[in-house]
Amino acid sequence: MRSGLLEGRERGREGEDTSLHAVKRVDAGEKVGVICMNDGKPTVVEYSELGDLAKRSLADGRLEYRAGNIANHLFTLDFLKSFITPDFHLPYHRAEKKIPYVNENGEVMKPTSPNGIKLEQFIFDVFEKSKNFYIMEVEREEEFSPLKNPDSAGTDCFSTCRGDTYNLHSGWLSALGAKIEEGIKIRIKPSRSYDGENLDEFKDREIKNDQLIS
Questions:
Q1: In Å, how far are 34, 56, 64, 133, 140 from 21, measured between CA atoms?
Q2: Which of 99, 187, 191, 202 is the most exposed place for a label (fewest CB within 10 A)?
């Protein structure tokens, strides 16, 4: 989704051709690409390509490569036009995947370990062409809740995304002084509020039932 904070900052600064948001990786095993410098140029290294670098720590215990890429990027049109031609193409990344297939008996098989290779292309490979690159660390709870897995995984799935949305929207109302009973689910349609605005009517209100605010 468009970030008002990112867009507003891009409009307010001259010269930046590429801007993006990042979150701190929760641990060395989190499956998220890392924003870093390579030979003096900004880039993203996919988690599958990090290897032992994913675990490298600083003296204070923080991960050295901790800037997680959440794919919230903003490019100027002039920047993109400066290199995109009919001959331009992004490089490929190798990714090992679990790919369902049909066996000799006509049965659909769902492998439990990677059995195939997928070639992927990522927009972040244009970062290295940036002349004025800007990165801002943001709060995970406000901008990042990945959807990668089925609910059975219990993480990065529909249920966790939904729960994070309830928490975010409840937080908007709580910031206005609303008193929300424990366990109440609040969902606010983006047509009503994109970032917590237009909700003054809920100031100091007691909320005892689930809400879908439109």
A1: 12, 22, 18, 11, 10
A2: 191
